[in-house]
Design goal:
- Helix 6 links the parallel strand 2 and strand 3.
- This protein is of the alpha/beta class and 272 residues long.
- The longest helix is centred in the C-terminal third of the chain and has 17 residues.
- It has two domains: 161 residues, 3-Layer(aba) Sandwich (Rossmann fold), CATH 3.40.50; 90 residues, SIR2/SIRT2 'Small Domain', CATH 3.30.1600.10.
- The strands form two sheets. A six-stranded parallel beta sheet has the order 3-2-1-7-8-9, sandwiched between helices. Strands 5-4-6 form a three-stranded antiparallel beta sheet, covered by helices on one side.
- It is built from ten helices and nine strands.
Amino acid sequence: MDPLEELTAALATANPGPLLLVTGAGISRASGIPTFRGTDPWAVWERDVTELGTLAYFEADPAGSWRWYLGRFAALRGAIPNPAHHACVALERWQTGRGGGFLLVTQNIDGLHRRAGSEALIEVHGTAERVRCSRVGCTLGSPRGSLPRSEVDLLAFERDSIFANVPRCPRCAAPLRQHVLWFDEYYASHEDYRFEQVAAAAERAKVVVFVGTSFSVGVTELVLRAGILREARIFSLDPSGVSPHPSVVTLTAPAERILPPLAAALVGSDTA
């Protein structure tokens, strides 16, 4: 059976078992946002992200950390959800409309799933749309606080990116930090990452669909392992065609070419 037909059949006959989508940087490539790994010429992974995207780097050089992230987040300006993001919304509405469980877990911090309209959504690595206090225990810091980036005045730092101009917490005046999971941090470091809910969903899902991920982070390892042990139907949408495990059915095409017709086929089958 053709992989797309197999995926369509697995979803249509899930009856209507929990569906878990896990998305990575590949789903946002069509929105003009660089991936981390892969062959994209502007892939962020080409830089030493494992050094710069860390708490250790922020503590050693808060201004340098802010400079790096502001440069990185420049790629998000003007980005809008692409057809793959909108197809995820259609899949959610189709699945929940027939009484089935649904959860979308994204590794991306770009906010495009939320802007597209996804509701059953966990941004497991945080979001570029918020920042938080670097002082643990502050009401605007870990383990549960944050504030919108739009409420932070960045003009002084953008004019002169020195330590004295690093944005400060409005509650305690400690330096603000990005509201993202750094490489030397744990998923349990902030409640917004909702990792326990992700783990619970991984234990229940009958169908798991990975979209545009390289399977190189903890959340994908956890979901993949849980799915394999429970013999869930597992699919991966990856243009490289590389499968993370023999039991995973791989669809070799970009997400924006697979998800829209998949959603249309499922929605159409229920309205025919």
